[in-house]
Structures are given as C-alpha cells and as structure tokens.
Amino acid sequence: MNYPLPKNLKTKLFIITLSIFGSFLLISSKSYAATLSISPASGEVSGTFDSIIYVDPEGASISGVDAVIKYNPSFLEVQLIQDGSFEQYLKKNINKTTGTIEISAYNSSALITTRTAVATVSFKVIGVSGEADLSFDFTPGATDDSNVAAGDQDVLSSAVGALYSMTFSAPATPGIGAGGDTSVPEATTPAIGSTGTTGFAFIILAISIFFVVSGSYLFKTSA
C-alpha cells in the first residue's frame, strides 16, 4: 500500500538533492584551477630580453609544473633558461628547429600555494622586425603538454602566452676609429741602409766611375 510523502519531507529531499548537485558542481569547478602566464605579456623588444614563466595555483596546493612553450625560431633564438623558485628541475630542453621549450620543475618538500616563478627564458631577436608570440602548448585534460600537478591531478585551467613587437638592429660595420681600423698609414722616409737607398747609392757610384774614367782619358790625351 502506497502512502503519500509529507510535503515537508518532499521539500527536504529536494533541498538535499540540490545540495549534492551543487557540491558536485563546486568540486568540478575547482578540479581545474591553476594558471600559467608569461611576464611581460607584451611590449617592444630588441637585442636580448627575458621572459619569466609564472604559475598561479589559484587556491590549489601544487607540487610540480610542466611548461611547454612554442616560439618562432625564425624570429627569436633562445639564449638561456634560468631556474625559477622550484627545488628541482627535471627538464630544460630547447628545440631550435621546431621552436619548442620544455621545462619540468618539481618541489619535493613543500607545496606551492602562491604565484611562483617557474623559470626565466632569455631570447635574442634575429633577422626581422615585426611581431612574435610565445604560446603554451596546452589542452585541458591532456597529459603530454603543459600541466600543473596537485597530488595526482592536473589542475591547470588556462595558459596565457605573450605577444611582442620586435625591432631588429643589424650590427654596425666597423669604420675608421672603430673596432676595425681602416685608416691609411702615414708615408715614412726609408732610413739609410734600407732598400729605399739602393737606387741613390747606385747613381753616386756611376757618377764616380764616370769621373774616374773621364779623368784617366783626359790624362792620357794630355800626355
């Protein structure tokens, strides 16, 4: 025999169901929280410059970061990757052909809960003037790209790159007084005994022989 439920019981069941559903949505929304970013995110660059990669846990407690960054190797050249504030660096790879940077940083003793520098990448502008972007290789839920670890869960929700306006300056050609000395050396007078006096000495000798021969001839004639 079926008995109708009291109205207040139906209300309580509805509230409990709504609370469970809301808790599920809240947990789901927090499953992806952390962000990766690059500073500065924009600006004018020339010569060599630094870009800092940051992770912000956004309320999570994280232990490690995998950052995969793409750049155009025709515009930029990676000079150096410097450690950030993590305890260990398992990977700092540069592929200059594909324009890919791979950084893996890890903390074994203390979890990170605040915005922290992952690494600093030094770039050099090469050959062009225009725009160049740095972008993270990131797909939510993927495990072979950029990730942020909180326990055994990837909590990375977004990864924001950078866009730079580049100015390329070709190296100056050395001129007079610069690194390459193109000045004309002053003319110098050959010293006595140098090869420059050979012709003069020959002339003196020839004149002397002439006078000796002439004198001998005149002496014979007068006799």
Task: Give a short summary of the structure.
The chain contains two helices and 13 strands, in the order αβββββββββββββα. It has 223 residues and is of the alpha+beta class.
Description:
- The strands form 2 sheets. Strands 2, 4, 6, 7, 9, 10, 11 and 13 form an 8-stranded mixed sheet that branches. Strands 5-8-3-1-12 form a 5-stranded mixed sheet, with no helix packed on it.
- It has 223 residues and is an alpha+beta fold.
- The longest helix has 25 residues, at 198-222.
- It has a domain at 32-167: Immunoglobulin-like.
- It has 2 helices and 13 strands; from the N terminus they run H-E-E-E-E-E-E-E-E-E-E-E-E-E-H.
- It has helices at 7-30, 198-222, and strands at residues 34-39, 42-46, 48-56, 64-70, 76-83, 88-95, 100-106, 116-125, 130-136, 147-150, 153-154, 156-160, 162-167.
